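BUG: 3D viewer hangs when loading the predicted structure for this chain

Environment: internal workstation, default settings.
Expected: structure renders.
Actual: progress bar stalls at 90%.

Input used:
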Amino acid sequence: MNLQTKFHGEVEVNEEQFIHFNTGIPGFIDEKEFCILPIEETPLFVLQSVKSAGTAFILTDPFSFFTEYEFDLPEEVTEALTISSDKDVAVFVILTIQEPFEKTTANLQAPVIINQKEKQGKQVILNGTSYTTKHQLITKEGK
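Structure tokens produced before the viewer hung:
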């Protein structure tokens, strides 16, 4: 099917690419179906709503930028996403893109967890951690 997107224009996607968010994303609870589109030649992706072309989020793999990033996934999330193996899980974080790009921040407090096997997703708010919604993506050391 053809999908209108915020950043890629119209793209062809297969419904097998859709990821279902049972509870939507915080602030976008009516948006339940998304697909992840790569941004060529970058470590970035777009989490694009299937329903609304204007609803899209820029994502990245947090472990590429924050090597010390770790957390325990709450059991209720593991159950809700029917995760049976760590191998099925992909973790992304939502970026707030800034100009210049060096000021871009990552929301490490609320990672997006995807069960790739079951095509289920959830943005999880981590409580009791030192993570915030605005960790600078690129530090002065260039990391």
